[in-house]
Amino acid sequence: MDSNSKIYVAGNTGLVGSAIIRMLKSKGYTNILSTPHSNWDLRNQEDVNRFFRINEPDYVFLAAAKVGGIGANSEQPADFIYDNLMIQTNIIDAAYRNGVKKLLFLGSSCIYPKLPQIPITEDQLLTSPLEPSNDAYAIAKIAGVKMCQAYRKQYGFNAISLMPTNLYGPGDNFDHNSGHVLPSLIAKFHGSLDKSEHWIVNLWGDGSPKREFLHVDDLAEAAYTCMERYESEKIINVGTGVDVTIKELAKIIVDVTGYKNHYQWDASKPNGTPRKVLNVDRIKSLDWQPKISLREGIESTYEWYKENVA
Ligand SMILES: NC(=O)c1ccc[n+]([C@@H]2O[C@H](COP(=O)([O-])OP(=O)(O)OC[C@H]3O[C@@H](n4cnc5c(N)ncnc54)[C@H](OP(=O)(O)O)[C@@H]3O)[C@@H](O)[C@H]2O)c1
User: Fold this and answer.
1) pLDDT digits (tens, 9 = 90+) for 54-66
2) Which of 24, 152, 183, 255 could form an S-S bond across to 172 if both were Cys, CB 3.0 to 4.6 Å?
3) What is the rounded distance in angstroms from the CA atom of residue 28 to the CA atom of residue 20?
4) What percent of the chain has pLDDT over 70?
């Protein structure tokens, strides 16, 4: 990409899209295009084709999607499969037909089997059954990966697919019901700061599952590295390669928020997969590595939350 390339970031208001825009601006890119959801429904093929015809972007970061935690995924599987299939199909096809030089598709680590070998290498895709609670979302994402591979094979279209681990950072969804675990815990402990000393925060599961978390600014740098240097139909994992227990995560958040009362684990609620961490050798071979520690990332995310959400 050169400094006056037209770069379209789909999903500009989201956690990932806004981080990609921050990163591009910090590197001096000024010709950034977006399609705010308020004016554009990316599920609509005519809208998407019209946007590409008029604006003729050179590069596309595809970070628009319907995204949510376990609750939202199990309650609205139809919306998760429909919205994601439509958005990505419209954008990938329109990008190819309108001469886009390169497209980067954001998948997710939930495309991998429910019980993978740890750490999860890219070649474990489609080797055994998916986690049923979000399989509609995962199948849509797998279709996006396959579509990038098929357009590369048949048309020579330069499309690549990144599989990020759990992300967090400024712009995250802090809603208890639809958000992911890390922002939900921040909101939960922050929301309990002014309660009486007898207050107890109840946490889902027994806290033993291990998960990996990557700050979204590190992901944005990884996306840039891949846009500049990665040319392959093979998917590429992006994560820290390090996991923590949910108990350890909760301890950091308790410490950062300054919550002083009790909290307890509700072991009658399901834990989910015991361990999920990506093998990140492929992305590390491109000389990328995460720079923001979990503690630092939670501290800055909490500051952002207090200023913008709480
Ligand atoms: N968050 C994570 O932990 C995580 C982990 C791995 C991979 N990813 C991937 O990263 C990508 C972005 O995720 P995110 O966390 O940034 O999600 P997000 O914060 O929910 O952002 C999604 C973006 O897409 C937009 N959008 C959704 N439906 C749209 C539609 N029909 N028309 C136009 N715009 C629409 C949203 O606009 P509104 O907000 O206005 O609706 C928002 O700008 C996804 O592909 C996801 O799979 C995320």
Assistant:
1) 999 999 999 999 9
2) 183
3) 13
4) 100
224 catalytic? Reply is: no
- Calculate how far, in angstroms, residue 291's C-alpha sits from the geometric centre of ligand 1: 23
Q: Does position 178 have pLDDT exceeding 80, yes or no?
A: no
Give CA–CA dist 25/17, Å, rounded: 12
Mean of per-residue pLDDT scores for the chain: 96
The first and second tokens of residue 247, run together, are 């108990």
> What DSSP string describes 21-34?
HHHHHHTT---EE-
Give the CA distances from residue 218 to residues 36, 168, 213, 291, 293, in Å, rounded to whole numbers and listed in that order.
24, 10, 11, 7, 10
Q: For 81-93, write each residue's pLDDT tens digit.
A: 999 999 999 999 9
d(CA 97, CA 122): 29
Q: Ligand 1 pocket by C-beta < 6 Å: which residues? A: 11-17, 37, 40-43, 63-67, 83, 87, 106, 108, 164, 166-167, 180
**Nearest Cα to 37, choosing from 17, 22, 59?**
17
- Give the sign of the dihedral formed by CA 224, CA 228, CA 230, CA 233: positive
| Strands 32-33 and 102-106, bridge-based pairing | unpaired
| CA angle at 112 for the pair 109 and 114, rounded to the nearest 5° | 115
**What contacts 183, CB < 8 A, 6 or more positions away?**
168, 172, 173, 174, 301, 305
d(CA 24, CA 201): 40
Q: Which residue spans within 2-80 are E strands per DSSP?
A: 7-10, 32-33, 59-62
Confirm if 206 and 132 have CB atoms less than 8 A apart: no
- Cβ distance 214 to 164 under 8 Å? yes
Pocket test for ligand 1, best of 8, 9, 15 (most atoms within 8 A of CB): 15
